[in-house]
């Protein structure tokens, strides 16, 4: 099997607030034989600038893509926002020559030219499509015993379908498979494909907190003991803000929220400390039971 | 009481720009604006509309079709979209609503409207490449956790790109 190597695009929110996601992703990918190459230099994918200037977003995204192209590598992102944005830039620049020339005109000023030779993949896409469930299975050392887990995809790994082109946005399967492979039980709930609301934080905080509250409530109602996210922004809403939501709505949830590679890493036999579990606000210590003999 | 009713009266006098729809129909992202037949699927599916008193994607589209340019661009409502693309996914006419909202936001910016939270992220990106200023304590914690150093951003490259794109000038605009 050819070696899997990607340029890691960390984004902004992960180094700022979600170190546990980075730590666990690196550990798990390393175990699975995936090589990560660090970026020589960084700029934001452009996601927060799209509402301000679509062209500035495309320019910043294209510059990041150029850095990967120079190394002849595909990009892996851990953040849905970065994934959706870099993917959008790749799609738009490959479909519109006029736009491509314009953006390349800008990039020429800093000595770069976008060619469109690097693909962008989300962590779970790398796990499902490139590493493969079979190989992950071989690396599972202990299976969770009776742990019920609710999934949360987040938006930009599913929508818009035309750009993402990964899973069926109305009936995605990847996270379910990735949860079940750890021995945990996947539980369904009503608004599982809905937005966490994080991009609205700072514009209007009430609505995202209300959205997140509803999701936590629906998850709690299914009897799930934990939740899994694959985006640092979504994780922030359910983990970092969970106690605020509990206070604001006078409810109690107590639902630990794993970055997916934390859940997988535990099943692969890694220690909670190695996976940055201490970084998560809602502690998971009481629910980490494994099947005997596994 | 009198003051209120006069304000309400003022609000009813809209300036209508019949070319606004034509302008939007030429911009990538909002080309399909006129295909909207107001079925309301977008608003029914919108998670923000569920909890907001003012955000209604269908209404935004209708106002844009009618040419209520100033009303749309100056209202804070367009900044409530969380870009989840649910509206786009369910629109039976394939109107890319989230992109229409993005086009409208870009236009509002040209008139000087930028919410503060975006101004903060803009300054941070231009100064460091990162949308959030990463505190030194985080950097030290990376080291102790055995993580490689964070790649740095280059403010010179950021400002060079911001200048050639016209972004530096754009964000200096103020509402007149």
Description:
The complex is a heterodimer of chains A (294) and B (176). Chain A has 294 residues and is of the alpha/beta class. Chain A folds into 2 domains: 4-123, Glutathione S-transferase Yfyf (Class Pi), Chain A, domain 2, CATH 1.20.1050; 140-288, Rossmann fold. Chain A has 13 helices and 8 strands. Chain A has helices spanning 13-17, 19-31, 54-70, 80-95, 97-108, 123-131, 133-138, 161-164, 174-180, 206-222, 232-240, 242-249, 260-267, and strands at residues 4-9, 34-37, 74-77, 120-122, 148-152, 185-187, 226-229, 257-259. In chain A, the strands form 2 sheets. A 4-stranded parallel β-sheet of chain A has the order 2-1-3-4, with helices on both faces. A 4-stranded parallel β-sheet of chain A has the order 6-5-7-8, sandwiched between helices. In chain A, α3 (54-70) crosses α4. The longest helix of chain A is centred in the N-terminal third of the chain and has 17 residues, at 54-70. The model of chain A has no long low-confidence stretch (mean pLDDT 97). Chain B is mostly helical and 176 residues long. In chain B, 56% of the residues lie in helices and 0% in strands. Chain B contains 12 helices and no strands. Chain B has helices at residues 2-12, 20-25, 41-45, 47-51, 57-66, 69-74, 86-90, 97-110, 116-128, 136-144, 155-165, 167-170. The model of chain B has no long low-confidence stretch (mean pLDDT 93). Chains A and B meet through α1, α2, α3, α5 and α10 of A and α4, α7, α8, α9 and α10 of B.
């Amino acid at each position: 099997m050819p070696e899997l190597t990607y340029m890691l695009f960390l984004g902004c929110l992960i180094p700022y607030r979600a170190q546990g996601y980075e730590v666990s992703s690196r550990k798990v990918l390393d175990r699975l034989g995936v090589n990560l190459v660090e970026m020589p230099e960084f700029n934001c994918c452009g996601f927060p600038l799209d509402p301000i200037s679509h062209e500035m977003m495309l320019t910043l995204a294209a510059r990041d893509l150029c850095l990967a192209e120079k190394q002849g590598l595909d990009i892996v992102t851990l953040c849905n926002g970065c994934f959706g944005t870099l993917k959008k830039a790749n799609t738009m620049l490959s479909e519109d020559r006029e736009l491509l020339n314009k953006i390349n005109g800008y990039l020429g000023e800093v000595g770069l030219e976008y060619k469109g030779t690097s693909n962008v993949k989300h962590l779970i896409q790398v796990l499902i499509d490139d590493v493969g469930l079979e190989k992950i299975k071989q690396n599972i050392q202990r299976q969770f015993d009776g742990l019920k887990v609710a999934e949360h995809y987040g938006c930009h790994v599913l929508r818009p379908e035309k750009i993402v082109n990964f899973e069926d946005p109305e009936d995605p399967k990847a996270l379910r498979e990735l949860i079940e492979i750890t021995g945990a039980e996947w539980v369904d709930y009503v608004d599982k494909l809905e937005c966490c609301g994080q991009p609205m934080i700072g514009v209007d905080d009430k609505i995202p907190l209300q959205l997140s509250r509803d999701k936590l409530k629906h998850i709690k109602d299914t009897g799930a003991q934990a939740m899994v996210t694959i985006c640092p922004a979504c994780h922030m809403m359910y983990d970092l803000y969970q106690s605020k939501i509990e206070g604001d709505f006078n409810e109690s949830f107590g639902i630990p929220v794993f970055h997916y590679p934390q859940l997988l890493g535990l099943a692969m036999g890694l220690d909670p400390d190695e996976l940055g579990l201490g970084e998560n606000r809602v502690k998971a210590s009481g629910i980490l039971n494994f099947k005997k003999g596994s | 009481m009198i003051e209120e009713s006069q304000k309400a009266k003022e609000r009813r006098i809209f300036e209508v720009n019949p070319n606004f729809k034509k302008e939007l129909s030429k911009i990538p992202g909002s080309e399909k604006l006129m295909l909207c037949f107001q079925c309301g699927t977008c608003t029914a599916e919108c998670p923000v509309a569920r909890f907001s008193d003012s955000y209604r994607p269908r209404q935004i589209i209708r106002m844009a079709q009618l040419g209520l340019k100033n009303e749309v661009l100056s209202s804070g409502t367009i900044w409530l979209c969380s870009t989840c693309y649910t509206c786009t996914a369910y629109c039976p006419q394939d109107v890319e609503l989230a992109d229409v909202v993005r086009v409208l936001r870009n236009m509002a910016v040209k008139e000087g409207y930028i919410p503060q939270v975006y101004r903060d992220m803009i300054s941070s990106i231009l100064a460091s490449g990162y949308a959030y200023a990463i505190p030194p304590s985080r950097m030290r914690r990376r080291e102790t956790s055995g993580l490689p150093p964070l790649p740095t951003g280059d403010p010179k490259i950021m400002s060079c790109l911001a200048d050639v794109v016209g972004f530096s000038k754009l964000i200096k605009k103020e509402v007149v």
